[in-house]
C-alpha cells in the first residue's frame, strides 16, 4: 500500500542528479539519492516499477546490492511479495553460489544464498540503473543456476549509449526502464 496519490505526470528524470567525473574521470554519475529523497518521486518510481512487475506475475522480486535494494524491497512490499537480495562478495552469511562480472568502472562478484529461490520460481530482477548490463546478466545467470525462471529485469534508469538494453535483448531477457539518459 502506497500512501501518496499517483502522480502520472511527475518527471522522474528531473529528480535524478548528475555528478560529472564520479567515481572516475569521464563517468557521468546518475545519482538516485535525490530521487529517493523526494517523497513523491520515490513513491511514483516504486508505483511505476511495481505496475510493470505485476504484468510478469512473479513469485519473488530479486534486488541487486546496493541501490537495487532501495527499489526492489519497496516494490516487493507494495506487491505483497518477498524480496531476495543478490549481494556483493562476502556479505551473505550462509552457503552461497556466486558469479564474477564486469562493471562500467571495474570488476566485481555477486552472490546468492543457496535455497533463496527454488526450481520453478518465477522472478523479476530489479536494479536502479542499466549501464553495460553486466550486473543484471550476472544476476540472471545466478538465478538460472538456482533453477529460477527470470521473467524480466526492471530499472529506473537506462543509459542506452552503454548498450545494456541491447545486450539484454540479445540474451532474450525482457527489460523495462522508466527513464533514459543519453550521452553517457
Ligand atoms: O549495467 P552495469 O554496467 O552492470 O551497471 C549497473 C550497475 O552499477 C551500479 O551498481 P554498483 O556496482 O556501482 O554498486 P552499488 O549499487 O553498490 O553502488 C548500479 O546500481 C547497477 O547495479
Ligand atoms: N553512470 C552511472 N551512474 C550511476 N550508476 C552507475 N552504474 C554504472 N554506471 C553508472
Q: Could you characterize what this model shows?
A:
This protein has a 7-stranded mixed β-sheet, sandwiched between helices. It has a two-stranded antiparallel ribbon with strand order 1-2. It has helices at residues 33-36, 39-54, 67-79, 134-145, 164-170; strands at 17-20, 28-31, 60-64, 82-88, 96-103, 106-113, 122-130, 149-158, 175-180. Helix 2 (39-54) crosses helix 3 (67-79). It is of the alpha/beta class. The chain is globular and about 40 Å long. The protein has one domain (13-180): 3-Layer(aba) Sandwich (Rossmann fold). The relative contact order is 0.16. 1-O-pyrophosphono-5-O-phosphono-alpha-D-ribofuranose binds at residues 64-68, 103-104, 108, 127-135, 164.
SSE class:
alpha/beta
CATH architecture descriptor name: 3-Layer(aba) Sandwich
Order of helices and strands: EEHHEHEEEEHEHE
Q: How would you state the average pLDDT, rounded? A: 95
C-alpha Rg (nearest Å): 16 Å
Number of strands: 9
Number of helices: 5
Amino acid at each position: 500500500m502506497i500512501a501518496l496519490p499517483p502522480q502520472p505526470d511527475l518527471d522522474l528524470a528531473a529528480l535524478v542528479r548528475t555528478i560529472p567525473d564520479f567515481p572516475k574521470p569521464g563517468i557521468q554519475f546518475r545519482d538516485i539519492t535525490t530521487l529517493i529523497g523526494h517523497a513523491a518521486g520515490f513513491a511514483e518510481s516504486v508505483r511505476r516499477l511495481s505496475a510493470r512487475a505485476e504484468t510478469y506475475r512473479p513469485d519473488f522480486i530479486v534486488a541487486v546490492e546496493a541501490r537495487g535494494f532501495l527499489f526492489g524491497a519497496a516494490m516487493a512490499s507494495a506487491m505483497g511479495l518477498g524480496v531476495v537480495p543478490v549481494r556483493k562478495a562476502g556479505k551473505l552469511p550462509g552457503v552461497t553460489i556466486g558469479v564474477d562480472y564486469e562493471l562500467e568502472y571495474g570488476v566485481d562478484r555477486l552472490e546468492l544464498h543457496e535455497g533463496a529461490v527454488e526450481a520453478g520460481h518465477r522472478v523479476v530482477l530489479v536494479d536502479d540503473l542499466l549501464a553495460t548490463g553486466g550486473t543484471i546478466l550476472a544476476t540472471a545467470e545466478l538465478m538460472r543456476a538456482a533453477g529460477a525462471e527470470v521473467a524480466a529485469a526492471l530499472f529506473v534508469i537506462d543509459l542506452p549509449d552503454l548498450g545494456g538494453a541491447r545486450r539484454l535483448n540479445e540474451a532474450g531477457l525482457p527489460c523495462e526502464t522508466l527513464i533514459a539518459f543519453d550521452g553517457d
